[in-house]
Hints:
Blueprint: H1 14-27, H2 33-46, H3 49-61, H4 63-71, H5 73-79, E1 90-95, E2 100-105, H6 114-117, H7 122-125, H8 127-135, H9 137-143, E3 153-158, E4 163-168, H10 180-184, H11 189-193
Parallel strand pairs: 1-4, 2-3
Helix pairs in contact: 1-2, 3-4, 4-5, 8-9
Bound molecules: fe (ii) ion.
Amino acid sequence: xxxxxxxxxxxxPVERRVDAIQAVLEERDVKAAETLGELRHLAQEQWIPQNGxxxxxxxxxxxxxxxxxxxxxxxxxxxxxxxxxxHHRHLVVLENSPTVQNVICxxxxxxxxxxxxxxxxxxxxxxxxxxxxxxxxxxxxREMGLDLPAEIEIRVWDTTADTRYMVLPMRPPExxxxxxxxxxxxxxxxxxxxxxxx
Length: 198
Ligand SMILES: [Fe+2]
C-alpha cells in the first residue's frame, strides 16, 4: 500500500460506487444498466493513466510536439487520438524542471483531466489533501514520499470545471536512448498529478 494511502481515509472504489448507484436506480425502475455499464467500461478501460503516459513519452522524444502540448494541451493530445469532454475546455500542461515541481489538486471537489490521467485516486478527493496541499505543500509531498530540497519551488494548481491540468514530469537521465514504447511504461499517474518524480 502506498505510504499516503495509510494516512488518508479511503472511500469505496469506483466499481463499488457504480454498483451502488445502479442498485438504487433499478430499485426505482430506471433503466440505467446500459448507461452505467458504458460508464464503467470507459472508466476502467479507456480513462487510464496510460493515455497520459503516451502524451508524456511523446513530449520527451518529440520537441515540436512538446512545444505544441505546452501551448495548447487539448489540441496536442487530440493529435494522439485522445479526446476530452466538452466541458474540459482547456488542458494546461505544466512542465517540471530541476528547480520547479508542479502539483495539481481540486480544492472544491475532485476534478482531473480524467480521460488522460485516469479517475482521481481516493486520496486526491480527500478533504485533507485538498486543503493541506495548498497550505503546506512541501510537508504533504514529504508525507507522500517526495522529499524535495528547499531550493525546488513547488507550484500548486487548483483545477476548475473548465481548466484541467496535467504535469509533464522530467525525463529520468538514465532513459536516454530508450524507445517511446519503453518510456511510456515508466510514467505513473502520481507523476502526472505531481506528487511523485520519476
Ligand atoms: Fe473538482
